[in-house]
Amino acid sequence: MTVPTKAMGRRWNSVEAREARLAWMLISPTALITLGLVIFPAIFSVWVSFHDVGLHNLNDVFRAPFVGLDNYRKVFEDFAFKFQGMQSWGAAVTSIVYSFASTILTIIVGLIAALLLNRPFRARGLTRAIFLFPYVAPIVSIAFVWRWILDPRPSGVVNDILMRLNLIDLPQAYLATRGLALVLVIIFEAWRYFPFAMLMILARLQAVDNNMYEAADVDGANTWQKFINITIPELRYVLGAIFLLRLLWTFNKFDDIFLLTGGGFGTKVLPVLTYEFSFRLYDFGRGSATAMILLIIVIIFMGIYVSTVMKGTGK
Amino acid sequence: MDTQNKNIIEHLTDWITWPRIIFALTLTFFLTSILFPFYWMVSSSFKTRAEIAGREPVYIPGALRLDAYKELFDPIHPSYQDFITNILNTIKISIPTALIAVILATFGAYAIARLRFRGKSFMLNGILMVYLFPGVLLIIPLFAMLAQIGERIGFDVQDNLGVLIFTYLAQTLPVALYMLTNYFRTIPDEIEQAGLIDGCSRLEVIWRITLPLAIPALVSVSIYTFMIAWNEFLYALVFLNDHSMFTMPIKINTIFNDPSPRPNVVMAASTIMTIPVVTLFLALERFLEEGLTAGGVKG
Fold first, then answer.
1. How confident is the model at residue A109 (pLDDT cuts 50, 70, 90)?
2. Residues of chain A contacting residue B147, judged by C-beta atoms under 8 Å apart
3. Which ranges of chain A would DSSP assign to H, the alpha helix?
């Protein structure tokens, strides 16, 4: 028995062991908070989604009755969730369309902005800083400015401009028009988040070897050919990374749509539906079930992405 | 043609080429669509109710009228909003969130970047999982959990700024940890090894060598965590009920949803909320830009 103890003692006092202990000490506050506030709640939320939890039994939540898949059934049968033809998409389909369209548009706008800023011109530094404004400013202010610009009264800027151009006769309620509201929300997302894509693309563009462009010049390639044959292939990995991150974040996003339309007029996405079930109807079980469906869709996306795109790029 | 013989018009037509025209137009389009909303926010905040609800928008306010700001700050205004309380609440939440998150994340990030221990990558991945979870998923169990704990040890879940700071840590710690870990990895290990050889202990090395070198990163990470707390909407919406406890975002939302619409007041409050963030950003842009792509602004 003495040999192991000795070995243990040596290991206990070795530099590596002391470092490991210090490391655990340093990381434990962060780890505990993350465990308590993220990992445990995430697991607990799975539990809640299978139980009948409401405001009435919130104080005694662990004795909430088990209801099996009832909450999920209720969500799938809810008119706000299920697809009922082109007139009423339901939250699941709306979420998917909204996040894919926003992500793609964000990347296109970000790419154009990055190409603009990649060539030298006077006041480029200032322009670059201004381009970051939409991303840095608080979402609440930004959303309400856009609501005020799109205001349904004649004092709304868009109404005024379109009426002056004789394109419309009467003021319109843009964010309260089914279909148009979703399009506007998608454009808003691109307006707000393009700087993220722009910065990542710019960083990559600046690392592209200039010799390639010079070689292409020698071969007589035009700007468009250089863009398609050099720039885009060089940007492939970074575009993939932006796509995945933005898709995830847009899919999970609550604030933007809640503030712009309140989730009405065909813009109800899963996070807003989760909020409504939980904090308007106070049916936490159904809310959790909706959130779990959201998470499952996210995980499926990740899986498809990792197994196709990442595999295809070989990195 | 000889350059000497060109007149000014010819020079100009030479200079104006299609790529240049497209470039100028695109740039103008970008700048207008970015700057106009900000101009509209600030200018609308200086308009009177008559100007804001007229038959057509007033593009340039006749004068800098402070009606909207009076409603926010002047106690004798008939619909006084007591916005100063909301500003203070936001500050009371964002500064502690930023400080606690940066201090705790510095410890954790150092351990991950420099020290070797078992379960490191597992732990890092676990912490970064937060990027994957939607905020709405976590808020239900957090609400139920904190209500339980509050019941046992006697604190209110709702209208408690301390609880809100605690939940904000869940959102800011992973971001801060990720950004600081990346930064610590860029500091050459040799500097620390030299310190260790000179007889400093690990903690002395961290305190005397690593932290001073990391000051730019510490500043930018604290600004990011500050901004996350400053802008946070969903958790504050769920956890705060009492108007005197509202943070700015919730208060602005309440003013906006008031039955009598007063866009000038909403814009005034939004201006107050936006200016510190944009100013901080412009002043420290060089330090901050890198963090933007590392999830500094979450979302």
1. very high
2. 58-59, 61
3. 2-13, 15-34, 40-49, 70-77, 90-117, 124-131, 133-136, 139-149, 157-164, 180-205, 210-218, 223-226, 232-252, 255-260, 270-279, 284-305, 311-313
Q: What is the pLDDT of residues A176-223, one digit of tens each?
A: 888 889 999 999 999 999 998 998 898 888 888 888 888 888 888 888
Residue count of chain B: 299
Radius of gyration of chain A (CA): 26
Of A27, A142, A195, the CB nearest to B108: A27
As a whole number of angstroms, the distance between CA A143 and CA A146 comes to 5
Q: Are A125 and B261 in contact (CB under 8 A)?
A: no
Domains of chain B: 3-68 (no CATH), 83-292 (1.10.3720.10)
Which residues of chain B from 111 to 150 reach within 8 Å of chain A, CB to CB? Answer: 111-112, 115-118, 120, 123, 126-127, 129-145, 147-148
The confidence score (pLDDT) of residue A213 equals 84
Asked, for residue A276, whether it belongs to a domain, the answer is: yes
Q: Which two tokens stand for residue B248?
A: 């700015």
Sign of CA dihedral A298, B297, A37, B182: positive
Conformational region of residue B295, where left means phi above 0, alpha means psi within -120 to 50, and beta covers everything else: left
Taking residues A7-11, what's their average pLDDT? 54
Indicate yes or no: CB of A135 within 8 angstroms of CB of B177.
no
User: Rounded to a whole number, what is the distance in Å from the CA of A16 to chain B's nearest CA?
Assistant: 7
**Mean pLDDT of all residues in A172-176:** 85
Q: What is the ipTM of this complex?
A: 0.86
Contact B232, B249 (CB under 8 A): yes
* CATH code of A194's domain: 1.10.3720.10
pLDDT grade, residue A2 (50/70/90)? very low
Pairwise CB contact (< 8 Å): B136 & A145: no
Segment 54-113 of chain B within 8 Å of chain A by CB: 54-57, 104-105, 107-108, 110-112
The pLDDT averaged over each successive group of 10 residues in chain B (299 residues) is: 65 79 91 94 88 82 84 84 91 94 91 81 76 81 85 83 89 86 84 82 83 86 90 91 90 89 90 91 76 56
Q: Does the pLDDT at position A234 exceed 70?
A: yes
Give pTM, 2 decimals. 0.87
Q: What phi, psi does A54 have (nearest 5°)?
A: -135, -170
Give the separation between CA A208 and CA A212, rounded to whole angstroms.
8
Q: In chain B, whose CA is at the least distance from the CA of A17? A: B117
Please report the pLDDT score of residue B78 as a whole number: 82
- Is residue A219 a part of any domain in this protein? yes
Please tell me whether residue B20 adopts helix, strand or coil conformation: helix
Residue of A nearest to B52 (CA): A155
pLDDT of residue B290: 66
> What's the structural domain count of chain A?
1
* Contact state of A33 with B169 under an 8 Å Cβ cutoff: yes
Domain span holding position A89: 75-313
Judge whether A129 lies within some domain: yes
Evaluate whether residue A158 is within a structural domain. yes
Looking at residue A144, what is its pLDDT?
94
